[in-house]
Specification:
The protein has one domain: Aldolase class I (TIM Barrel). It has eleven helices and eight strands. It has helices at 4-13, 27-34, 48-64, 79-91, 105-116, 135-140, 147-160, 170-180, 211-216, 226-229, 234-252; strands at 18-21, 43-47, 69-75, 96-100, 123-127, 165-167, 185-188, 221-224. Helix content is 47%, strand content 15%. By secondary structure, it is of the alpha/beta class. It binds cytidine-5'-monophosphate. Cytidine-5'-monophosphate binds next to strand 8.
């Protein structure tokens, strides 16, 4: 039986499946957390709020600390504009970036062309249906198919447009993995590790999945925010989740 220290050593050697969501209003708060984390155990996600206040220099600062960065700006515009935005984001040296699949195949192909103009080669993924949407809000914008069918349709369009993967809920991961094959990258938020008492803290997420279950469902990377950012000891929680991921992926191998 391997102890936690040697499991952690092993997970540092592997590509980390954990992406910590830096949902902060300023760089000082984000850096306070980042300085407690280990880049061999996680990647970092910078979203619209932090990017708007902290800018590209902050992303470059994270990269200079050896972290891989997922720039979560969900571009959605005319193809030419999205292509230029994706090229600019790629030039920052980010590891992953994203667009909205509902921008259509012409926009996604243009995004891919933008990425390929950069000397860096980030993963380009697409958001299918936002998990904040329900059947009513989907109908409001003229889409009357079920959410599940719409997610699958947009994920397939993402794949045929040449992108590397999609953001989806961990529940959707199983069917998308089956339908889209093992190379397609699935990035899943809504992850909650079990607490010591076996319970999970859902926060405002309505459907949550444990790290091991998400990986078993076929997720490639797990986006995790508050369970790590709000922890008393973020590094300890990160280490425990990394060990859980390693155990799950060893069983999958
Ligand atoms: O704190 P928590 O783990 O819930 O954070 C999840 C992160 O994933 C946040 O940055 C949130 O915006 C993002 N996200 C999500 N659900 C989606 C897409 C992104 O929770 N469908």
């Amino acid at each position: 039986m391997q102890n936690i220290e040697s499991k952690l050593q092993d997970s540092k050697i592997q590509d980390s499946r954990i992406i910590v969501a830096l949902d902060y209003a300023n760089n000082a708060s984000a850096l306070n957390l980042v300085n407690q984390l280990d880049p061999s155990l996680c990647k970092l996600k910078v979203g619209k709020e932090l990017f708007t206040v902290a800018g590209p220099q902050f992303v470059e600062q994270l990269i200079s600390k050896d972290f891989k960065v997922f720039l979560d700006l969900k571009f959605h515009d005319i193809p030419n504009t999205v292509a230029k935005a994706c090229e600019a984001a790629s030039n920052l040296g980010v590891w992953m970036l994203n667009v909205h699949a509902s921008g259509g195949s012409a926009m996604m192909q243009a995004a891919m062309e933008g990425v390929s103009k950069s000397k860096h080669t980030p993963y380009l993924i697409a958001v299918t249906v936002l998990t904040s949407m329900n059947q009513t809000s989907l109908s409001e914008i003229g889409i009357d198919t079920s959410i599940e069918d719409q997610v699958l349709k947009l994920a397939k369009l993402t794949q045929t447009s040449g992108l590397h993967g999609a953001v989806c809920s961990a529940q959707e991961a199983q069917i998308l993995r089956r339908q889209l094959g093992k190379e397609f990258c699935l990035v899943t938020p809504g992850i909650r590790p079990k607490l010591g008492n076996g319970q999970v803290n859902q926060d405002d997420q309505s459907r949550v999945v444990t790290p091991a279950d998400a990986l078993n469902n076929g997720a490639s990377y797990l986006v995790i925010g508050r369970p790590i950012t709000q922890a008393i000891s973020p590094l300890k929680v990160l280490e425990a989740i990394a060990a859980e991921c390693l155990a799950a992926t060893s069983l999958l191998a």
